[in-house]
């Protein structure tokens, strides 16, 4: 329907393997399962989810720009490993006015030291981490209230 708020959900590298990837850390939900739950939740609130995954940093940057160009209401971003390395993604978040929410299945602060630094977190509006697939739902609920 026209004029429904659109929320981009952008997923970075290796998240296509959710379900089988280190399930003791990331759980057994697949990315499709997560997309399905978010879709149901967004529809119930009269919003639309645009759910994507890429293993390539530049795709995530292009999609952040696209979120701005199409007037998305918010972006939920699980940049995965790029969270901890990508100044280019930080710059892209700073270059747009769409609010970006950082999402993680695990809690990076409870893990290795190199995961404690988040470039995404330097520009994100809020961080939702450590609740498995529920982290996305919590972030969506807040984004829908904007
Ligand atoms: C992750 C946490 C990151 O540290 C890791 O590189 C990932 C997944 C998470 O959702 O818990 O790939 O973003």
The geometry reads as globular
Biggest sheet overview: 5 strands, parallel
- Assign the CATH class: Alpha Beta
How many structural domains does the protein architecture include? 1
Write a brief structural summary.
Homododecamer. This protein has five helices and five strands; from the N terminus they run E-H-H-E-H-E-H-E-E-H.
Give structural notes.
The chain has 146 residues and is of the alpha/beta class. The protein has a single domain (6-144), classed as 3-Layer(aba) Sandwich (Rossmann fold), CATH 3.40.50.9100. It contains 5 helices and 5 strands. The protein has helices spanning 23-26, 31-44, 57-69, 87-95, 134-144, and strands at 6-11, 48-53, 74-78, 100-104, 126-129. It has a 5-stranded parallel sheet with strand order 2-1-3-4-5, with helices on both faces. The protein is globular. The mean pLDDT is 97. The chain binds 1,3,4-trihydroxy-5-OXO-cyclohexanecarboxylic acid. Residues 14, 78, 80-81, 83, 104-106, 108, 115 line the site of 1,3,4-trihydroxy-5-OXO-cyclohexanecarboxylic acid (DQA). Substrate binds at residues 78, 84, 91, 105-106, 115. Pathway: Metabolic intermediate biosynthesis; chorismate biosynthesis; chorismate from D-erythrose 4-phosphate and phosphoenolpyruvate: step 3/7. Belongs to the type-II 3-dehydroquinase family.
């Amino acid at each position: 329907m026209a004029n429904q708020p659109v929320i981009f959900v952008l997923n970075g590298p290796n998240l296509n393997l959710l379900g089988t990837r280190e399930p003791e850390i990331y759980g057994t939900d697949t990315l499709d399962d997560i997309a399905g739950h978010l879709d149901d939740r967004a529809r119930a609130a009269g919003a639309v989810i645009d759910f994507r995954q890429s293993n390539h940093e530049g795709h995530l940057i292009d999609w952040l720009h696209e979120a701005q160009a199409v007037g998305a209401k918010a972006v939920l971003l699980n940049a995965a490993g790029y969270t901890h390395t990508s100044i280019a993604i930080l710059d892209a978040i700073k270059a747009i006015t769409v609010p970006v929410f950082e999402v993680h299945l695990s809690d990076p602060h409870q893990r290795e030291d190199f995961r404690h630094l988040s470039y995404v977190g330097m520009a994100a509006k809020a961080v939702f981490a450590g609740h498995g697939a529920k982290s996305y739902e919590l972030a969506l609920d807040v984004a829908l209230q904007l």
